[in-house]
Design brief:
Helices cover 80% and strands 0% of the residues. The radius of gyration is 18 Å and the shape is elongated. The mean pLDDT is 76. It has one domain. The protein has helices spanning 3-15, 24-51, 59-89.
């Protein structure tokens, strides 16, 4: 079972939960704190990347550093949160 199938099953289980197996307050608090911390860290990292000296650097390298790295960081954070949640509640 790959990650997409596991995520789909998790979402369906969460949405169809009628026995209150999931404590929604814990989920909301965990996600809001994580997004707050990510917002602070990623915004300061983006400012530093944008203000860096890019003289002599190829444009493809700059594009990867400025566009792809933040996207990968967000995906990695989401995967870590998902694994931690599944491990704790699973």
């Amino acid at each position: 079972m790959n990650f997409t199938q596991k995520l789909r099953l998790f979402i369906m289980k969460f949405l169809t939960d009628t026995r209150a197996d999931f404590d929604i307050a814990d989920v909301v608090i965990d996600v809001s704190i994580a997004l707050f911390i990510c917002g602070i860290l990623l915004s300061s990292a983006l400012v530093e990347l944008a203000a860096a000296n890019w003289t002599g650097v190829d444009t493809s390298v700059k594009t990867v550093a400025v566009v792809l790295l933040p996207v990968l960081a967000v995906l990695a954070i989401a995967m870590v949160m998902f694994k931690a949640y599944r491990k704790g509640k699973g």
